[in-house]
Design goal:
Elements lengths: L1 E4 L17 E4 L6 E7 L6 E7 L8 E3 L3 H10 L4 E3 L6 E4 L5 H6 L1 E3 L2 E3 L11 H5 L2 H16 L13 H16 L9 H12 L2 H15 L8 H17 L1 H9 L9 H5 L8 H11 L8 H10 L8 H10 L6 H21 L10
Antiparallel strand pairs: 1-2, 3-4, 3-7, 4-5, 6-7, 8-9
Helix pairs in contact: 4-5, 5-6, 5-7, 6-7, 8-9, 8-12, 8-14, 12-14
Length: 355
């Protein structure tokens, strides 16, 4: 809901002075609201001011005899309200979008906690029942964290606290970045980070920084991933025209078979230790901000036989854990140098960097 000054064509000039202060109500999505500012003057009616994410502030909405508390209680049935650490009268809407506030305090079961983790108890069953996006994201996170890297000793076994931490960090992130939420593949990125950092808070902030750079890969349309695949096709065209033409011939010129590689930064293509080595190399951005695209080409050059599109997809899937990391890195370096300025010309500014 929101309230705006009531206007009907040119009738405003004909309204009495009293009627000019009438307001009409229109629908407003909670996702548009940044914060709610509560004011309780000693004299006069209490009121709230709603501030939108765009920076627009609506006129005050006045209440009488406890109406503000009832209004806020109703809001809390649908979204998180977190009190700002800088102003106790300011309530941040839709979770922990204020990083400073998140660092200071997170509500778990209604109690402050010195960790940036919002566990499932943070939302009551009553709230969850009316919070569709929360339910959907929580379900996806539960599905992914049950199976992710369970062969790694750090995550092995039933009732493993590290699996719980993985789940909680991902769930917290959906509130920290509510617009983006959770996308499948995020658990692949978080798993090695938590393994290395060994601390929930540290892992959360490292993961947040990484997704801030790669987050466009996780939007609902995956449009940014497709832009990278287009850049990949152009790079292949100048580096190996025969292989590129082969993909066109079998109807795979969109390079969608590389989708998982880009989305998860090759997390599922190498063993656990090698993945961390690969990321350390790629994220230096030493030779290129898009070194991962050259890695794709080196791996694709393994193909040495003709096959149809279905067989190709199966072949690429079976490459997992059968790729020589050292040779792949050296090959990507050579290709990056060989492509030179021509390679850079095909990577548009909008293309997501390696990390």
């Amino acid at each position: 809901m929101s309230w705006i000054p009531y206007r009907v064509g040119n009738l405003c000039s004909q309204l009495s002075e009293k009627d000019r202060y009438l307001y009409m109500i229109r629908l407003l999505e909670f996702t548009e609201i940044r914060s709610i500012h509560q004011r309780t003057p000693a004299l006069g009616w209490h009121y709230v001011v709603v501030l939108l994410s765009s920076g627009l502030a609506y006129p005050p909405l006045y209440f009488y005899k406890g109406g503000v508390n009832e209004f806020l209680d109703t809001i809390k049935q649908h979204v998180f309200l977190v009190r700002s650490g800088d102003d106790a009268n300011v309530l941040i809407v839709n979770g922990f979008r204020d990083s400073l506030q998140l660092k200071k305090s997170v509500l778990v079961g209604g109690k402050p906690r010195g960790s940036p983790l919002a566990q499932k108890e943070s939302i009551s069953p009553y709230q969850a029942k009316r919070f569709t996006k929360f339910r959907e994201r929580k379900r996806l996170i539960e599905i992914d964290t049950v199976t992710i890297d369970r062969s790694v000793s750090f995550y092995h076994g039933d009732d493993n606290p590290n699996v719980t931490s993985l789940h909680d960090i991902l769930l917290t992130y959906t509130f920290y970045n509510f617009d983006l939420g959770y996308g499948q593949g995020m658990s692949d990125l978080l798993s090695p980070i938590l393994y290395v950092m060994r601390g929930d808070s540290e892992a959360f902030w490292c993961f947040s920084a990484l997704v801030e750079r790669l987050g466009t890969n996780f939007d609902r349309s995956h449009s940014w991933v497709h832009s990278e695949l287009f850049a990949l096709s152009k790079l292949m065209e100048i580096l190996d025209i025969e292989l590129h033409n082969y993909f066109k011939q079998i109807g795979c010129s969109d390079y969608l078979f590389c989708f998982r590689w880009i989305l998860t930064q090759f997390k599922r293509e190498f063993n656990y230790e090698e993945t961390m080595t690969l990321w350390e190399v790629v994220w230096t951005n030493h030779l290129s901000d898009h070194f991962h695209l050259y890695l794709c080409i080196v791996i694709l050059k393994i193909i040495d036989e003709q096959m149809d599109s279905s067989t190709l997809l199966l072949f690429i899937t079976k490459l997992s854990d059968h790729i020589d990391l050292k040779e792949t890195l050296w090959g990507a370096k050579a290709l990056c140098i060989s492509a030179g300025e021509d390679g850079k010309a095909y990577i548009f500014p909008a293309t997501t960097p390696s990390g």
